[in-house]
Each structure stands twice: as C-alpha cells, then as structure tokens.
Specification:
heterodimer; A: 300 residues; alpha/beta; six-stranded mixed sheet; two-stranded antiparallel sheet; 9 helices; elongated; B: 828 residues; Rossmann fold; 5 domains; nine-stranded mixed sheet; 32% helix; flat
Chain lengths: 300, 828
C-alpha cells in the first residue's frame, strides 16, 4: 500500500487505534461466502439455531440421530450461518461539498471518513465498494474483498474532486435498485437537497432491507450563520449569486436550517437509518469510533 | 424648552456627525463581501421569509444610533433650559457683569408688593450668592462704569439701586459693557441684563451700535467669551395712569393775571374710565382746593386723552416765575406704593411756569449793516401806533454760540448757512418746535458747500434786461406802465390754502404776484438727490440681476451711484441722517458693493444677489423717505422755488430764494412780506417755541448744564436728588429754574413680546443669548430657578437610546430557541 500518497485522507495512527474495533451490521447480511456476520440463512457454523421436522428432500445426513433414537421422530438440527459483509460507501462529490471555512472542506472530511471505513472494512475481511456522485455518477467501484481493490479505492479518493450539482437522490434510488443482496450502505454527504425526496430515498433503501448509515456533514458556519456585514453569496454548485444582509435574514435562515434538520432526523428515524450529524470541526476519529462502538453494542 | 447652548459651535459643526451611523450603514451596504456558499437552499428560504418587522427593526436600530450620537452632541454643546440665572454652568464663569435697567417703567408693579426693579434686584442678589468663585460686577446707566460687587455685604448697601426718572439707552449701555469687558476681562463672562424690554430703551433701530455691541461681546478680538442672559420682566401693567404737564403759564395780565394755566395730558394703560384725584403744588405748598374748580380736582380719564386745560387761582403772593407739580393722588402710602396704580413713578409731573408771553420774540441773524437785515426786522416787528406784541432782536452771526434760540418763536437767517455747533443748535431748535427761515446771503457773502437739513444754496442768478445786462436793482425792472410786465423773475404760483402765503381769513389773496425779483439763489436738496441716486443704483442692480451675461459696466455705475447717495446723505445733518445710520449704510451697502469686482461680473452678481440684496432693499426703503423732502410754497414762472418749506421734528425750516434787498427784490416793499413774517412767528408760537415753560423743561437724564454751574433741587423731599437721574425742579445759583421730567418714551408702553425673541437675539449677533420672559399678570409667581444645564439629560437619553438599540440587536428569545433546538437536534 502506498501509504504516503494517501496521507491527505488516511492517518496511520487513527487507523491503528480503530483497528481493534469491528464494524457490525445491524441486520443479517446475505453473503456469498462465509464471514463474520449473521446471515438470514441456516448454515454450518457451530452455533445451534433450532430443530425442525424432517421433510422429504432434506439431506438425511442432517437428521439428529439421537432424537430419532429417543423419540422415533425425524428432526433436523440447524445451525446459524455466518456470512460476509458488502459495504457500499457513497460519497457526495457535488460542489457544495467543497465548502469549508472553519477547518477543512466538507469533502476532505468526507474523504477521511470514507477512506477509514474502507480500510476497516477490508481489514475485517469484508468487501468494500465506493460510489462517488455529483450531478452524474462519477465513480462506481463494486465491493471486493482483496487488498488490491482497496488500493483502487484509495487511488480513486485521491483524485476525485467536488463539482457540479447534487443529484444524490436519483443516484441513491438507482443504487437501492441495483444492490440485489443486503448490504451496508454508508452515505456521506451534506444532503443539500429536497428533504422529502431524500427521506423517500431512505425509505427505498430500507425497503430493500439494507443497513444504511447517514453521515450528515455540516460546516459550523452553515449552522451558526455569523456574518456581520452584507455578503455576496455565490452558489458553489451553479455559481448563482445572492446578495443578502445576514443581520436581517439570520433568524429566518436559522429557522429554515432547524426545520430541515428536524425533518431529516425524523425521516431517518422512521426508516431505521443510522443518522449521524457531523460538524466538520469535530474529530473524525471520534465520529467513527462512536459509530463502531454503537454498532458493537447493537450486535451484543 | 431649550433656549441656548453654551458650546454652540459643537452643535453647529458637530450635528453632521449624527449622520455617521447612516453613512456607515450605507458604506457597509456598498461593501458586500463575496463568499462561496453551499447552503444556498436555506439562504433562499430565508430571503423569502425575511419579514417586514426585521427590516423595520433594522431601521429602528439605525434611527436609535443616530439619536444616540445626536444626544451626545447635544450634551457636549451644553444646552441650557428654562429659567433665569442660577446653576447655569457646571463651572462658574470667571466674570458676571450685571446690567440693570433703572428706567421709570422698571418701577411698575411686578409681584404683590415689589416693583420690577426691586424683583430684579432680588434675583441679582440671589445670583451673587450662587457663584462663590466668580467676580461679580455691576453696571447701570447711572453708574456708567462697572463696579465690583462685594458679596460679603448686602447688595443694597453697596450701590444706589433706587429708581430713576430716566430712560435707558440699552445699546449704549451694552457698548460700554463690551468695551469694559474687552479691556479688563478674559475667560468666560456672563452678562446678565434685567430689563422690562421697553422698545424705546432697547432701540433696535440703532443697528450700528448694536453691531458694535455684538462684535464687542463676541470676543473675536478679545480674550474673553461672553454669553448673555436677559431677564425680560415684561409682565403686563394693567392698572396705570401717567400724567404730563405740557405747558404752564400765567394768565393773561390784562384779563386774568392771578390765574395759572396748565395743559395736562393723561395716559392710561387700559380703556376703562378712571376718576383721578389731583394734587396741585406750587412753589413749595399745595394749592388749596378752594382755589381749584371741582372738575379739576377730580378728573375722569379714559384711555389716552387729549390735553386738558386746567386753570386755577394762584395763591396771593405767587411769583411771576415759579415752579410746581401735578400729582395723581393726594399722597403716597408708604405701606403700599401701588395703592394708586401700578407705577407710582409716573404719577407726578413737574413744571416751571413763566409769564404769559406778551411778546412774541424773533431773532434776525444777519449783519446789522445790511439793509436786508433791517428790512426783515421791520417785517418781524412792525411799527404800529397801538403797539404790537412782537419783538425782534438782530443778532450778529459771528457770536451765536451761547444764544438760547428756544425763547424765540422764529429765527430769520440771512447769512451763509450755519455750520458746526450753531448749525446743530439751530437744528435742535427747529426739532423742538422752532420756525427758521433762511434768506440768501448777499452776493459778496456767498459761500458754497454748506447745507442745512440737506438744503444748500446754489449760485446767484441775476435777471437780465433786453441787452443781456444784469439788472442792477428791482426798481429798474419795473415796467414803464401798468400794462407791461416787469422784467426779472415773476412769481406765478403759491400755496393759497396754508402756509405763510395763504389767503386771509376773508379769502383775500396775498399780492405775491406783484413781487419783482431780479436776483435769486437756487436751491439744492441733497435728500432728493440721495433718493434719486439710490433709485439709480437700484435700477442698475435690478438690471444686473436680470442680465443673463452680467455687464461689468453696470457694477461700476451702481458703485458710483451708491457713493453719490452716501455723499448726499452725509449732507443731511445728524438729525435727519444720524451718524450711526450713516456708518451702517456705508458698512452694509456702500463698501460691500464697492468691493465687487467689475472684472468678474458673474461672481459680482452672485455676491450681490446672495449677500448684498437684502441690505440694498432695506436701505432703499430708508432713503425712500427723502423723496419730496421739501414743499415748494411759492414758485417762479420757470418753476424755480421762491419759498420752500422743510419739516424737521416739530418745527419748520423755510428757504426764501431772494432777499428783501434793493439789489435782489421788492420783497421789503410788499406788505405780504409782513404778513408772511407774522404768520411764521405765530406758527413758532403755536409749536411751542418761545414758551417759558417749554424752554425750561427738559427730559431727565439729558439735561447738561454748563460745567461751572450748580443746580439744587427745590421740588423734592430728598435733598440729595440728582438732576442726572431724578425728576424734579432744579434751580441754579443764578436763580434759573429747570423742570426735569421722565422721558416721554417711558409713557409709551411698547415692550418686546416673547414672539420677538428672534429680534432680541439678533441684536447680539453670534453671541449666545438666553431670554427668560416673565410675562403674565402682575403678582403671578415666577420661578426663581436659574437656567439649568440639561446636558445630563441628554446623556441619560443617550444611554436609554443605546439600551433600546441593544435590546433590538441582541438575539431574541426565538433566536435562542432556534439555537437550542439545533443544539438538541445535534445531540441526538
């Protein structure tokens, strides 16, 4: 791994501290190979699941002979199946992600989270893929398990830049349709789009029984809106201009932000999305660690 | 109500700073800062939802900031509010100069038992104690020079604050004050003026002197900074009657030698009828009521009355010449000085009486060696078998300085026009009711360049015969027979209805047409010429103003015309055109116009229209009165005047264009000349000239006897009465009486009203003036608080405004709720 060239978004020390954490899925995964995640199917693991009556066609090797001997009844003994996890990391690459005044750009922050998750996923032997969207699908890297694939993901993250308008909703619908089997979908974005459409999108993902986590990135200035003089606001996505006196519209702005956040939060709760609002002045390590810890607790 | 600012300049030059918040606001609006922004969706929603209240709130905040700055500026300019004297400055002034009006009208009732003068004095005492670290000086018209007030002693014991019977020349008094301040004081000076604001005392028309006062008090050339506080005690005087004795003389020696005849005039402050008890006093004793008719003991008056003739029988042994007074009320009440009316000071009028003028005297001024002088004397004092009551004195023109013209009913002058003191003496004589007639000097005695009342003799014109030779005397001009017309100048018209050449009572025309004149002097009226020159200047100025492209030639013509105007006006004499007015005219109009640069007509026109025009209009109105300043009583056939009359004050001045001299005219041969002179003498008598009473009555405060004479009061209970300030009858060591009475203006109740405060303030120019008006009915309680500095209030206002501004700009509770909800949402 050419670690030196990924230093923009990978921090070896952070990875070192997070590597002992395991990233669990909140729902059973459907995998093609044996892994460390629960599966909805019965399998050959050592963990007993249940007894069921024998039906013609079952493999006679699965009969529990002891039960047959004692009760003269045909039961089959079943065990839990463990399978692998496919992690789809969705990175919003629209122009609005390029904003960042207090610390770094939201996009840079998002890259760190995405790269860290990709590394952790690959490290625990699961497949990781990367989807980069703006007004068009920029990158579509399907999940793979091998380390070489991880390098491909990092190379992609190193070169992608935020530009264009947000078409996240459309692409998420498309993604929800495209993924045939249950998967973990981590969406990293500022979600500056219609909140109702976005919630509808989450509903779609939920309907497909995906475990999806939403990392909502916001710059502190976007939340506080502390300007003391007239400003010429230039849209990062379409370059449109708006002259405004922040002192006059601040209350309305904050009210609109508040309404939007509340609505988004409620939508995420409704459709079991793992919603996390992230301020870009917070430590991304803590954000990821919190995410992993909560997942571990959920798995127990 | 704010009346004044101690630091007016702070307000004058600092008020634009109040616009600073607005400028900063506008500047900020212009300085949009660019920012690349992501959350445009919220911004658009916010812009749509930005409510009207928020905009109003923003403008409200802006207005409050402006108010705050304004309040700060007002506080720094140290405004004064309200009242008189006390607590005017946070730091005491270095000098306070108290100027007290001690005129007669200040003795009118102010409170329940005090006069305006006494009430003002109480305030002054109060003030002296309020400024422990300030030097206090006192000035009034009697003191003349400011005197130091020693606050350790009662104020009344330090100065004579008693009432006077004089008027006050307020501009002159304040000029003395400003001169004294300029020479002696520095630092902050307060001039406190206590006055009843009588217009005649304040003399707003004395603009020249007021300009000096304003200039002097402004301290531009001196190291002091003055402000003026005026206590205007203008409370209405509603119950007052004043009286005045216009004339007093003994009865006709032939018909009623024991009688004394008075002409008395009353003036009341209300139109309600009042019955007055009168006390008559003669030569030290009251006239017994038995000698006086009842109707003259109790007189009913209503408003201003016409003069009333009062006659009573003088007690036996009354001297031929004496003195007395008439008093309203039979005595004074020590406990209540206002028992009779609101001003006890004007309830007594003094007089000096003399014999009935058996002789109407006239003075002929001219060389006794000249026949014309004798001819005039004979006309004025004609021989008659039964005798006449006319007496004419011939006086040499060279020795007139000490001549008292007042005793003459008429003065005839046939010499070069007078100049210097004699001219001024004669002008005063005419103004007080004298009649003066000028005849031309002889041909050998002609002097050019002299004028009297603006009239000037021009050169002699001599009539010629057919051969073009000057006629030697009037006799050669006579026609050979009655059908022919005489040579020389013929009189063709004269005033037949009034004047000295009017028709007789039987409407018989005087034979003025028969006058043969072979020599005459032409007249020049400088008043009319000043008027004409002023009108020319006005025309040029109007033409200049109307021109699209100004013409420099017009400016030069206007300058020349105004110079000419000033030159003619200077010939009118100080009675018709006082020196102060002449100075003002030159300073306000002639000099500014003279300074206009004709080479830059555009600039000059702008300056003329913007700055000089109001003065041009004003002075045009002043000069306008000289249009038609003289009346032609008789004229020659060529419209040149024979006899011209000019009115000056109460009297009249005549100019006769020819002399009663063989070489000039047949005037002395015409009997109408005797009639003419007789009528002039009678006119002089009627106007008051020649009356012993009138000539021995003066206005208190203006009587200036010779320096080596001493005058003692004979009419007053107070032996220390001073003719400079107390009315009364005074007698010289030579036995001559003089009656001094209060000025007539003190009976004229014209006061500045509160509405005229701008006028009062304008008198002081740029000097800060606070006028505290005490109006309303007498006896009404007035505040004794001083004018308060109210800058602290403005600081409080500023603090309140800033607090309001802070309340508007700090986040409202709804903002905090939004932030709180957001925080809560973030926590989830």
């Amino acid at each position: 791994m050419a670690e030196q060239s990924y230093s923009e978004f990978l921090d070896g020390e952070v990875l070192g501290r997070l590597m002992h954490r395991f990233m669990h899925a909140r729902v059973p995964m459907v995998g093609t190979i044996t892994g460390q995640h629960r599966s909805p199917h019965r399998g050959s693991s050592v963990e007993f699941a249940e007894y069921r009556k024998y039906v013609p066609g079952d493999d006679p090797r699965l009969l529990d002979w002891r039960v047959l001997a004692r009760t003269d009844r045909y039961y089959i003994r079943e065990f839990e199946a463990d399978t692998n996890l496919r992690n789809y990391i969705v990175l919003d690459c629209s122009g609005s992600m390029g904003f960042g005044r207090v610390g770094e750009r939201k996009f840079d922050y998002a890259r760190r989270i995405a790269a860290t998750f990709a590394y952790l996923t690959a490290h625990q032997g699961d497949a990781v893929g990367l989807q980069c969207y703006s007004d068009q699908k920029l990158i579509d890297i399907p999940p793979r398990r091998n380390p070489a694939h991880l390098k491909h993901v990092f190379d992609t993250l190193a070169h992608v830049q935020p530009k264009g308008e947000t078409q996240l909703v459309h692409h998420l619908h498309e993604l929800a349709e495209r993924i045939r089997q249950r998967a973990l979908v981590i969406i990293i974005s500022d979600f500056f789009c219609d909140v109702d459409e976005l919630i509808h999108c989450f509903q779609h993902l939920s309907f497909q029984k995906h475990d999806f986590a939403v990392f909502h990135l916001l710059d502190p200035e976007e939340i506080q809106f502390d300007f003391d003089r007239p400003m010429r606001f230039v849209d990062l996505e379409d370059n449109s201009v708006l002259l405004a006196e922040p002192e006059v519209i601040r209350d309305q702005y904050l009210a609109a932000v508040d309404e939007y956040l509340v609505k988004l939060h409620e939508g995420c709760n409704k459709f079991q999305a793992d919603y996390r609002r992230v301020s870009t002045d917070a430590s991304y390590e803590e954000v990821i660690a919190d995410f992993l810890v909560e997942r571990e607790m959920y798995a127990k | 109500m704010l009346d004044q600012f101690i630091n007016l300049n702070v307000l004058k030059y600092g008020w634009p700073l109040a616009l600073l918040p607005v400028l900063i606001h506008l500047f900020n609006r212009l300085r949009h800062r660019r920012i690349d922004w992501a959350a445009m969706m919220f911004l658009r929603i916010a812009s749509r939802k930005s409510t009207r209240f928020n905009k109003i709130r923003q403008y409200l905040v802006l207005a409050l900031r402006v108010l705050a700055v304004l309040a700060l500026i007002l506080a720094l300019s140290r405004p004064l509010a309200g009242t008189w004297l006390g607590g005017m400055m946070t730091g005491d002034p270095e000098t306070i100069l108290i100027v007290l009006d001690r005129s007669v009208s200040m003795d009118s009732k102010d409170g329940s038992s005090l006069s305006k003068r006494e009430a003002a004095l109480a305030r002054i005492s109060d003030t002296a104690n309020k400024f422990p670290g300030t030097e206090i000086w006192y000035l009034d018209s009697v003191v003349g020079t400011p005197e130091r007030v020693d606050r350790l002693e009662p104020l009344e014991s330090q100065f004579d604050f008693n009432a006077t019977d004089t008027a006050v020349n307020m501009p002159r008094l304040l000029e003395q004050a400003s001169d004294w301040l300029g020479k002696n004081r520095s630092g902050d000076c307060m001039v406190f003026i206590a006055s009843d604001m009588q217009e005649d005392n304040w003399r707003p028309e004395a603009s020249g002197r007021w300009a000096k006062v304003a200039e002097g008090l402004s301290g531009e050339e001196h190291p002091f900074k003055a402000s003026v506080q005026v206590l205007a005690k203008t409370r209405a005087v509603t119950n007052n009657v004043s009286l005045r004795v216009l004339e007093a003389r003994r009865g006709d020696p032939r018909t009623a030698p024991e009688e004394l005849n008075l002409v008395v005039q009353f003036h009341t402050s209300s139109k309600a009828e009042k019955t007055l008890s009168l006390l008559y006093h003669l030569n030290g004793t009251n006239v017994p009521p038995s000698n006086i008719a009842v109707k003259h003991q109790r007189v009913k008056v209503k408003g201003s009355t016409l003069p009333i003739n009062v006659s009573f029988k003088a007690p036996p042994g009354t001297p031929e010449i004496g003195w007395g007074f008439v008093q309203i009320g039979l005595g004074t009440d020590a406990d209540d000085p206002f028992a009779i009316d609101d001003n006890p000071r004007d309830n007594r009028a003094y007089f000096v009486y003399g014999p009935s003028p058996e002789m109407a005297q006239s003075a002929i001024i001219g060389l006794g060696t000249e026949a014309a002088t004798d001819n005039i004397r004979r006309a004025a004092d004609p021989f008659y078998d039964g005798g006449t009551n006319r007496l004419a004195h011939v006086l040499a023109p060279g020795n007139l300085n000490a001549t008292a013209f007042a005793k003459y009913a008429t003065v005839a002058w046939q010499d070069p026009l007078p100049e210097g003191p004699v001219s001024e003496q004669l002008m005063r004589y005419v103004a007080e009711g004298g009649v003066l007639i000028f005849f031309p000097p002889s041909e050998t005695n002609q002097v050019s360049g002299r004028s009297f009342a603006g009239m000037e003799w021009q050169g002699v014109q001599a009539a010629t015969n057919g051969a073009g030779e000057a006629l030697a005397n009037w006799r050669v001009a006579r026609p050979a027979n009655d059908e022919e017309q005489p040579d020389g100048y013929r009189v063709t018209g004269w005033r037949e209805r009034e004047g000295p050449l009017a028709n007789s009572q039987n409407n018989l025309t005087l034979p003025v047409r028969d006058l043969i004149t072979v020599r005459r002097n032409t007249l020049r009226d400088h008043g009319v010429e000043a008027f004409n020159a002023m009108e020319l200047a006005w025309e040029k100025a109007e033409a200049l103003r109307a021109q699209e492209t100004p013409d420099g030639a017009l400016i030069r013509e206007m300058q020349k015309a105004l110079e000419t105007t000033a030159e003619h006006l200077s010939r009118l004499g100080s009675t018709l055109w006082p020196g102060t007015r002449a100075t003002d005219f030159r300073a306000q109009l002639v000099d500014p116009v003279k300074s206009l640069d004709a080479a830059q007509p555009g600039v000059a026109r702008r300056e003329l229209v913007d700055e000089i025009w109001p003065f041009l209009e004003r002075w045009r109105g002043q000069v306008d009165v000289f249009e038609g300043g003289h009346y032609v009583m008789a004229r020659f056939s060529d419209d040149r005047p024979l006899l011209t009359r000019k009115l000056v004050g109460r009297g009249q001045v005549y100019f006769c264009a020819t002399r009663p001299d063989e070489a000039w005219s047949s005037l002395h041969e015409q009997w109408f000349f005797v009639v003419m002179m007789d009528r002039l003498i009678r006119t002089g008598e009627a106007l008051g000239a020649g009356s012993y009473s009138v000539s021995h009555t003066r206005v208190c405060g203006t009587f200036e006897p010779p320096a080596d004479s001493t005058w003692k009061v004979v009419s007053s209970e107070v032996e220390t009465a001073d003719y400079r300030r107390n009315a009364g009858v005074y007698q010289s060591e030579m036995g001559e009486f003089i009656a001094l009475n209060r000025p007539m203006t003190e009976d004229d109740w014209q006061f500045f009203a509160e509405e005229q405060e701008d006028l009062v303030q304008g008198l002081f120019g740029s000097v800060p003036v606070h006028v505290h008006w005490e109006t309303g009915a007498a006896g009404e309680a007035s505040s004794t608080d001083g004018p308060k500095e109210v800058w602290r209030w403005f600081l409080i206002i500023m603090a309140a405004v800033l607090l309001g501004e802070a309340l508007l700009v700090i986040p409202r509770s709804s903002d905090e709720a939004v932030a709180g909800r957001r925080t809560a949402a973030a926590a989830t």
